[in-house]
Task: structure prediction
Amino acid sequence: MNEPPRQPDAAVGAAHSRVSPLRLLYVESHWLSRKVAWYLMQDVDCVWTYADNAAQAVALAEKAKAESAPFDVVIVDHHQSAEGSGLRVVRALREAGWADTILAIGVEEITGIERQRYETFDVPFLFLTPENHADLKAFVRGAARK
Result:
């Protein structure tokens, strides 16, 4: 008995289709912080690009957009370098026209004024602790779906 070939179920086809990895730009100058962020996100299919400071972040974001491969999320470490805080990076990106998702992170709580400044730029701040480290993955995945 020859049965006609079955068409794959739509849900099965969707599960097997290749989804591009998330493109992340992480602005942080210290190698160990970069490694920690990578470790926290290791089970998320993503490609990392790193910038040391605001100028590099703006240049990389503009280049990626020009090549029609913009970053899904820009992650800015609040204490990113000796050159300044993550707020400087966020300001530089927004002033350069970057309207897409930015997430500020830190391992220390920030002041209410700093939090307000991030909110002014429509940037949430995630205070990372051992108890909430999975929140980074959840935020990035959620932002990429938008």
